[in-house]
Amino acid sequence: MRHEFTTAAGLPPEPDAAAAGLSPGGACVVRLTDVVKTYKVGSVSVPALNGVGFGIARNSLSMIVGPSGSGKTTLLNIIGCLDTPTSGKLEVNGEDVATLTDNALSDFRARNVGFIFQNFNLIPVLSAFENVEYPLLMLGQKAAQRRSAALEILDAVGLADLRDRRPNELSGGQKQRVAIARALVKKPQFVLADEPTANLDSQNGAAIVALMRQMQVQLQTTFIVSTHDPQLMTHAEETFRIRDGKLVNHVSGGAES
Ligand code: ADP
Ligand code: MG
Asked: How many degrees, rounded to 5, is the angle at CA 129 between CA 139 and CA 212?
């Protein structure tokens, strides 16, 4: 059953919690309210988000879709607490992140947010295993604990045999699997993936979205994925479409294109 909410004048719809299958409060891992982001470039203001509001259901595969320049990366950076809104509110687990200190925020990010990028962003001099282990090293975990967690997740993404290879000895699809393992190794509350299939062919892209879906179910985590890849969009559980920094449409289920 598809629910569709389209606004007549391109105005952002009210987040419709009941229709989206979210109960207010606890079921949303992330909630944005009237988020505005304006970049300042010298004396020029560049509007990137113009009042965006919606909630992301816990344990969902949610996609943010829209053309290049629509504000997807800006939105993910705000959700990942890498950047702050010019105005508006971001709540994570019902908590307003603006009330957290910088230290609390970076600690939250290190423990609870996984990042996956379009160009993989692996460390070239480290093996697949070492890349996956790295976030746990940053969290101060002991070697034995790091090793077992990294091996377990590399196995889950199908890379146990390739764990000693460096990024330049892996295909694009394999590199993105390493990046998915690296994002998941700390068992984050949510994973942000910014156009994760943009540098992959369609077959590898399909395999990567299938893996994200499998991991989301298996590990009971939330994936928030931005894309303008029509093939990828069909796999979403919740789709938020943005254009010119505004939410124009929200469907439960995948987008058709
Ligand atoms: P998308 O990821 O959908 O392509 P972005 O979030 O990157 O969109 O960009 C949204 C708008 O904000 C665009 O007009 C872009 O040029 C502008 N923008 C993005 N990042 C910056 C920045 N650091 N400084 C100035 N303008 C930016
Ligand atoms: Mg982008």
From this structure: 85
